[in-house]
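I hope you will forgive my troubling you with a question about protein structure. The record follows directly beneath this note:
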Amino acid sequence: MDMLVLFFAGLIAGALNTLAGGGSFVIFPALLFVGVPPIMANATNTFACLPGYGSGALGFRAAILRHKDKLLQYSIIALIAGYLGAEALLRVSNAQFEGLIPWLMAFAVAAFTFGGRLNSWIASLSPSSKHAARAGSIALVGLLALICFYGGFFNAGLGIILLAYLVLAGFKDLNAMNGLKLLISFLVSITAVIRFSISGSIEWQAGTIALIGATIGGFAAAKLSYLIPAQMLRNFVIIYGFGLTVYFFYVTYFV
């Protein structure tokens, strides 16, 4: 039964990631539901999401390569900060992480809900702030490091936060932004997964079943994407994510 729960959670998550995003909001609680401890569930969720980031980045490789001048810097930051985020996760107890889950979920759901508006707002400011962006290049590096650290610590919502960052960094090409978002997410996740695997923090069987489900769900959703409006799915993810956040606050602080 647990394996079926994880497989179907992966199916749904893979479809959501393809059509609207938010797949981690399904896999992570499913892992908790079947009894995987919180820190291991978070690490396993990162592993289950990894192939989707890699295959997506390959799909955008032509757009990514148009920004070769940024790749080395972004890759180094993603690998180092992602590792440090994973290291930080392993230095808290399951009880401490349980107390953080509602707040991390709330942040991720807020980022998912308002990310589009944030991107538009930042884009509207960018023409008048090009000089400030050049002068603040060090601040941009620091911000990316913080985002990647968050991704290594807690994967949910990473993609939309990275999109907002890339808009702030002055990118205009949506394909390049999506490609770089996926590449950075992949690098953050691969270094985190390596660290988690060294510490024995990944439940490989559960993660692999969710991963297989996510792969099948993502492929099927790509074929059937014209049947379901993306905005309808986004609204579903927002409502579901909000309900999940309320649930985590309730069980953490009132039970």
User: Anything to note?
Assistant: Residues 94-125 form the longest helix (32 residues). The chain has one domain: 2-253.
